[in-house]
Amino acid sequence: MPYVNTKEMLADAKKNHYAVGHFNLNNMESVRAFLLAAEEVKSPIILGVSGGTAKYMGGYHTITDMVKDFMDYLKITVPVCLHVDHGTYDEALAALEGGFSSIMFDGSKLSMEENIEKTRYLIGLCHAKGVTIEAEVGAIGGEEDGRISEGECADPKQCEIMKDLGVDLLAAGIGNIHGKYPADWKGLHFDVLDNIQKLTGDLPLVLHGGSGIPSEQVRKAITLGVTKVNVNTECQIAFTEATRKYIEEGKDRIKNGYTPRNLLAPGLEATKAKCIEKMELFGSIGKA
After folding, report:
1. By residue range, what is the domain housing residue 244?
2. Three-state DSSP class for 255?
3. Residues carrying an active site annotation
4. Which of the ends of the chain has fewer CB neighbours closer than 10 A, N or C?
């Protein structure tokens, strides 16, 4: 079964100048949609799980078992990684115990000293189990209390410190934002990314907030060392719009169109299509 960590898939992406998509799970339909998309176009894939999703879907053990069982049932042959997204220290530990193959510990809101201390400890635990670990420097922007913050640009020197600690991949803030981007967004700070790349060498870099970034900026980021791009919002919107269209057209009132399987099927297909669209942008199609 091709259930793997991120180490080999991202090393190849870095070497061959493409990125692997990280797509956030939100429900059972998203599990099926992303696995089917990856298999159809022969792309490696990273399935991300936030703390909120872990609670909604029954915990880390449940999600691990679900993903592995679906991989077996759907006869998935491409590499699949199950990854914690922006995990707290406790969530990282729980996911490690729950069978995830990769975790992200987000210590970006802590002091640099505490971020280093906790990241170092988690590196030891993860590597002892063959699990990869992503750290973060420079908080990613996003909406909070109705206001959108651009987030911080990471200090390249701090990124170098994280590399020297032994992390397997690094999320570095370069003006990217979670959720929808405002009309006055200034764009990615490529000068910062270039400096980070120079100091971190072959360390895979991660671009969070991949929904809504113009395609040409995503491509440029990949040329500057980004090998993992996180996508969530665009897939959620695609799912919602397809489901809304199904109901507005009255299809839920025809025969057994009201059953959850039928009601959610258009959303699943829309999610799958959006996933393939992003894989084409990232250059990962055919790389499995």
Report:
1. 7-282
2. coil
3. 85
4. N
1 occurs within a structural domain: no
Q: What is the DSSP string of 186-215?
A: ----HHHHHHHHHHHTT--EEE---TTS-H
Neighbours of 216 (CB within 10 A): 8
CA-based angle 52:55:58, to the nearest 5? 145
CATH code of residue 208:
3.20.20.70
**Given a cut of 80, is residue 187 above it in pLDDT?**
no
**Does residue 164 register a pLDDT over 90?**
yes
Q: What is the pLDDT of residues 24-40, one digit of tens each?
A: 999 999 999 999 999 99
The verdict on residue 160 lying in a domain is yes
Q: What are phi and psi of 84, to 5 degrees?
A: -75, 135
Residue 27 belongs to some domain of the structure:
yes
- The total of structural domains in the chain comes to 1
Identify whether 2 is part of a domain.
no
Is the per-residue pLDDT at 143 higher than 80? Answer: no
